[in-house]
């Protein structure tokens, strides 16, 4: 009898929470619709102007510092100078794309989250803060982001390049590579990048439904039972928001796995050079996929280990 009454109490608490949540959600979406485009425009126009405006200076100064540095050996310096056009061309593209995604994400979610935060116990006039919070602060923070990007492009980047030109301490040797291993490094990298990207992305996509439904299950259990992060009444509105936004977190995890797999594949060439062994490079390509699968299994509380082979 007591258990039935407790269940009904929790169920009623959950049902009565829904209108309150949807009211806050609609208000947050409205604020995000009004403030988001302004924050997006500030970040996109400001960051893009700085990145494009200083790109030529960055290219010239980067080549000059790499050519003059004594921290690199001759062979490694030549390889870096040959390979520099690719990252120098990608950097402004990635910076602009990052500004677009950051402007959209921050401009939308900051007012939305601020609306839910305003119902906390630290706020007295909750209705006022629900309507106002996240508006001007989002615009100010967007301007701060542009200032930080400007500071990095104008000052920090050139300081890093200046440090590269500093003389080596007497006990240090310049970093260099063995040209005899370069073809093997390139071969393993050309095999490792596409293979790791395909396999790791496939694992992430295959196990994304587990992450989605296990996350929803845990959030609903915490919401109905008032456990975990939703123990306090003020935190309950975030439960509904977390449930709605959880699919975006899953998509973000899959995209992050895909991006991260590129760098894992590139590192296979470093393994070949460090270990002086092409076989170790190919073994790394296989092992890193197995390790990723094992890590995902542990994260999602699936079976221990991995069914994929692991070479040592």
TrEMBL record:
It comes from the Eukaryota. The chain crosses the membrane at residues 12-32, 38-60, 72-90, 96-116, 181-206, 238-267. One of its GO terms (biological process) is vegetative to reproductive phase transition of meristem. InterPro entries: At3g27390-like. Keywords: Membrane, Transmembrane, Transmembrane helix. PANTHER family: EXPRESSED PROTEIN (PTHR31133:SF2), MEMBRANE PROTEIN (PTHR31133). This is Uncharacterized protein.
């Amino acid at each position: 009898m007591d258990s039935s009454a407790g269940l009904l109490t929790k169920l009623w608490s959950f049902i009565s929470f829904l209108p309150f949540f949807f009211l806050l959600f609609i208000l947050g979406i409205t604020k995000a619709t009004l403030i988001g485009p302004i924050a997006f425009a500030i970040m996109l126009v400001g960051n893009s102007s700085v990145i494009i405006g200083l790109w030529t200076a960055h290219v010239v100064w980067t080549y000059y510092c790499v050519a003059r540095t004594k921290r690199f050996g001759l062979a490694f310096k030549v390889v870096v100078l040959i390979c520099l056009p690719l990252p120098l061309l990608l950097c402004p593209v990635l910076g602009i794309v990052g500004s677009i995604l950051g402007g959209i994400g921050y401009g939308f979610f900051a007012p939305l989250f601020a609306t839910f935060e305003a119902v906390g116990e630290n706020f007295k006039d909750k209705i006022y803060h629900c309507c106002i919070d996240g508006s001007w602060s989002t615009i100010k923070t967007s301007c701060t982001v542009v200032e930080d990007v400007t500071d990095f492009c104008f000052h920090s980047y050139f300081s890093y390049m200046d440090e590269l030109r500093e003389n080596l301490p007497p006990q240090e040797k310049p970093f260099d590579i063995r040209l005899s291993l370069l073809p093997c490094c390139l071969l393993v990298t050309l095999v490792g990048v596409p293979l790791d990207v395909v396999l790791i992305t496939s694992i992430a996509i295959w196990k994304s439904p587990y992450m989605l439904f296990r996350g929803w299950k845990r959030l609903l259990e915490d919401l109905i039972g008032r456990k975990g992060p939703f123990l306090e009444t003020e935190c309950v509105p975030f439960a509904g928001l977390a449930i709605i936004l959880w699919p975006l977190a899953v998509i973000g995890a899959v995209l992050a796995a895909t991006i991260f797999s590129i760098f894992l594949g590139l590192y296979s060439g470093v393994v070949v050079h460090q270990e002086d062994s092409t076989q170790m490079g190919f073994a790394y390509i296989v092992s890193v996929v197995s390790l990723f699968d094992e890590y995902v299994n542990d994260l999602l509380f699936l079976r221990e280990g991995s069914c994929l082979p692991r070479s040592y």
